[in-house]
């Protein structure tokens, strides 16, 4: 009955291992399971520069640019719009309806070296502030933030709080710690 229920945002965690790939739906438990991998990430990076390869229309462009500078402040990353290149982390942003019924969907490979954010066609019809809020959330996932069980940050897993407002445009202290590792 709640039209927002179909807008829950989830991330899938794809851990690409040497001989097998494991896919799990992100949840507090799944995020905790990923902790052991996070500590190994800096060796995969070596540079704060992250390329954001944009394959979305003008409908998303200005919201994406705003989200990039917002999330950069917490990660210490230097996200730049441009083609992904060898030796740098990469976030591909595509318009796709393969979002498991949600407004958007983020997946990533080992160490989040390459992340993919899918933004649905339905999301493109939402208002600018909602689009930006959801892109903030997905970029948070792409940079290591799990869901927040309270509506006190952008990592709340729905597009609106229970009071129908957008989640606050911030990250919690715990989320900041995780984002700062990326
Ligand atoms: Zn999410």
TrEMBL record:
Sorted UniProt keywords: Signal
GO molecular function, one term: metallopeptidase activity
Domain of life: Bacteria
Signal peptide range in chain numbering: 1-26
Cited InterPro entries: MetalloPept_cat_dom_sf (IPR024079)
Name this protein carries in UniProt: Uncharacterized protein
């Amino acid at each position: 009955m709640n039209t927002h229920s179909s807008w829950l945002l989830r991330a899938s965690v794809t851990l690409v291992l040497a001989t097998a790939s494991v896919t799990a739906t992100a949840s507090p438990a799944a995020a905790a399971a990923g902790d052991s991998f996070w500590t190994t990430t800096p060796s995969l990076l070596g540079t704060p520069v992250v390329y954001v390869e944009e394959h979305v229309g003008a409908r998303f462009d200005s919201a994406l640019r705003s989200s990039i500078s917002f999330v950069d402040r917490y990660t210490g990353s230097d996200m730049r719009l441009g083609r992904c290149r060898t030796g740098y982390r990469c976030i591909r942003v595509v318009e796709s309806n393969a979002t498991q019924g949600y407004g958007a969907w983020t997946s990533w490979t080992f160490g989040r070296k390459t992340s993919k954010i899918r933004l649905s066609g339905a999301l493109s019809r939402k208002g600018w502030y909602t689009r930006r809020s959801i892109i903030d959330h997905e970029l948070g996932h792409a940079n290591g933030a799990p869901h927040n069980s309270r509506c006190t940050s952008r990592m709340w897993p729905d597009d609106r709080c229970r009071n129908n407002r957008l989640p606050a445009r911030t990250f919690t202290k715990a989320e900041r710690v995780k984002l700062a590792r990326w």
